[in-house]
Amino acid sequence: MNRDTSNSVNTQQDFSGEIVVSIENVNFAYELGGRQILSGLNMEFRRGQVVAVMGGSGCGKTTILRLIGGQFAAQSGQVLFEGADIGKMNSAELMAARRRMGMLFQFGALFTDLSVLENVAFPLREHTDLTEDLLRSLVLMKLNAVGLRGARDLMPSQISGGMARRVALARAIALDPPLIMYDEPFAGLDPISLGITARLIRDLNSALGATSLLVTHDVEETFEIADYVYFIANGRIGAQGTPEELSRSTDPFVRQFLDASPDGPVPFHYPGQTLEEDFGVKAQ
Ligand SMILES: Nc1ncnc2c1ncn2[C@@H]1O[C@H](COP(=O)(O)OP(=O)(O)OP(=O)(O)O)[C@@H](O)[C@H]1O
């Protein structure tokens, strides 16, 4: 399937916030493997928005986060963060840009030998010269925001998975970043923790006046909190729109996702050799 935005759910983003991240005509392939992962990709992330990036396994969602974080550079096109081209930054500029991005990785690992308080203090100790008193107050404010001020002295082994995710969230926002990127923030959470985490992502984004970029498979929770959703397929935007627009869509690609159907335009097989080439038989 080879789609672009022009034949997908046809909407214009009408959010007034300034553009924080802009992905313009990006083409990307990893050196290893050589397969084209992103092809002429265009996306915009505006201030104040919670934007979800969804799509099948291996379609390139995490790769998009890596290009924004500057871990990899696009072969062509631009990834702009606050107007500056991430791919052209030197290492000092990249470090400064990354300080303005909060990142919560899949299963947001905490440092197991540091207390909850010290986990959240970590980025502040790394990047600022705050006095101990000020640092402690800031950390307690972040822990308060995620409802875990009382858990400050516990070690990661003493808290639940849902609580650990909230501590990781507090750590991701410790430096008040204008951009927060979440890679599968709901993975492995029970339904209650999942709901709490989703609501926190929305509330923290509003409280910080930030932009949140969410890579996720969880349609229901995501559609509750996102302002805008991009569906990726074959390295391009397969569909985009507000959750309301997408929910009403009859596009087979969108429906396959929303209805979680195994059959549809999104292929089950990773691209590769044909059955005939591998087994010497013709597929029926
Ligand atoms: N460092 C790497 N080197 C080579 N290929 C890679 C590398 N990282 C990812 N890939 C490949 O790039 C493609 C996109 O990977 P990516 O992790 O961005 O997908 P994804 O949409 O986040 O998938 P999932 O939802 O399963 O996490 C995959 O086919 C993967 O095998």
Automatic annotation (TrEMBL):
Pfam family, one: ABC_tran
SMART domains assigned: AAA
GO MF, any single term: ATP hydrolysis activity
Positions of the ABC transporter domain: 21-259
UniProt xrefs under PROSITE patterns: ABC_TRANSPORTER_1, ABC_TRANSPORTER_2
Gene3D superfamilies named among the record's database cross-references: P-loop containing nucleotide triphosphate hydrolases (3.40.50.300)
Sorted UniProt keywords: ATP-binding, Cell inner membrane, Cell membrane, Membrane, Nucleotide-binding, Transport
Highest taxon in the source lineage: Bacteria
Protein name in the entry: Phospholipid/cholesterol/gamma-HCH transport system ATP-binding protein
Organism: Polynucleobacter brandtiae
